Amino acid sequence: MVTSLLSTDDLRQARALVEESGLRFEPTFDDLVGVFEAGRLVAVGARQGRVLKMLTVAATHQGGTLLDEVATELVGRGFQEGIDSFFVFTSPTLVPTFEALNFSLLASSGKTALLEYGDGLSRYLSRYRRQVVQGDNGAIVANCNPFTLGHRYLVEQAASALDRLYLFVVREERSLFPFDARLRMVQEGTVDLANVTVLETSWYAISSVTFPTYFLKNGDPGGALQMELDLLLFGTRIAPYFNVTTRFVGSEPLCRTTADYNAAMHRILPPLGIEVREIERKTAIGAAISASRVRELLSRGELEGIAELVPVTTLDFILSSEGIKIWDKGVSR
User: Fold this and answer.
1) What is the DSSP string of 237-278?
2) CATH homologous superfamily for 129-332?
3) Helix runs in the chain, H state only
C-alpha cells in the first residue's frame, strides 16, 4: 500500500533509500510517498509541481509493480490538484520502463531523458494549428520581464529576415512581472509587425520542467543536462511543428547562465537543421539594454531612466496602476 511519508523516521528512510540508489535527495516536494514492507521502506517517490522525482525501488524489490504503484499514486494526487500532465527525468536506459507506465518520451540526450505522462505536448501544439504557416520561419524564446527596447530590436532584426517570426513568451511564473502582464507587453510592443506571431511556451521551453536553472540565481548542478533537454525538445518537436529553421537570440554579456544557454544553442540546434543567429545587443546609456537593468531602476525608484530602455507601450504599463502594484510589491519583498 502506498502511503504518505510524514514522520522524521519516514524522511530518514526515504533519504537513505534515494541516496543508496545513487540519486540526490531533494527536500522540497509537494508529495512524498512510499511503500513499506515489515517496517522497512522499499519504494519511494515524490512530486514537485508537475515533476515526479526521486522514484526509487530497493534493489531487493525491483522487477515488480512498486514503481508503477508509486508513480500512479503521485499522478493521482496531482490530478486532484488540477494538474493534467506530469514529467519525469531519468536515465535513457530506463525509458522503456517508464514508457510501460504510459509515459511518452519528449527528448533524450546521452545522459538523461525527459518523459511526459499525459498528452500535454500534443494538446499544446494543436492549440496553435491555425498559426502554423509555410515559408522561411524563425523563432525567439524570451521571458520579457519586462519587454524592453532590446527585445524589440531583436524582434525587428529577426522579423526583417523571415517570412514568419514566432515569438514564444515564457509562461513560467517566477518573474517580477506575471505571465499575463509580460504577454500583454509583448503583444502591444509588437502589434505593428505583421509577420510576428506571439505565442506562449506552456511547459515546453525554458520552464521549471525543462530548464529550472534559468530561474535560479546560483545555477544548478544538473543545469547543463536540462539545458540540453530543453533545446532538444525545441529542436525535435516544437521547431518542426512551426516550420522553424532559424532561432534568434541576443548576445549575453551579463548573465552566465544565459550565455551558457546561448553556447549550448549553437552546439545543439544546427545538427537538427536549425540555424542559430546571435544578434549583438542594442545599447543605451552606455550599456547593453536588459530587463535586469529596468528592474534595477524600478528597485531604486529611478523611473526617469526607464524611458530610454523600454517601448512606450511597456512604459505605459509600468506606470499604470496595475503595473505599479506589481513592481512596487516585488521591490518591497
Assistant:
1) IIHHHTTEEEEEEE--SS-HHHHHHHHHHHHHSGGGT-EEEE
2) HUPs (3.40.50.620)
3) 8-20, 66-80, 95-99, 120-127, 149-159, 179-190, 223-233, 239-241, 256-268, 291-300, 312-319, 321-332
Q: Which CATH architecture has domain 2-119?
A: 3-Layer(aba) Sandwich (3.40)
pLDDT in tens, 37-92: 999 999 999 999 999 999 999 999 998 999 999 999 999 999 999 998 999 988 89
Q: How confident is the model at residue 8 (pLDDT cuts 50, 70, 90)?
A: very high
Closest CA to 231 of 200, 206, 260, 257: 206
pTM: 0.90
Please check whether residue 52 is in contact with residue 74, taking contact to mean a CB–CB distance below 8 angstroms: yes
Report pLDDT for 219.
43
Domain ranges of the chain: 2-119, 129-332
Query: What mean pLDDT comes out for the span 258-282?
Result: 94
Please, are residues 196 and 168 in contact by the beta-carbon 8 Å criterion? no
By CB atoms closer than 10 A (0-12, 13-18, 19+), residue 30 is middle
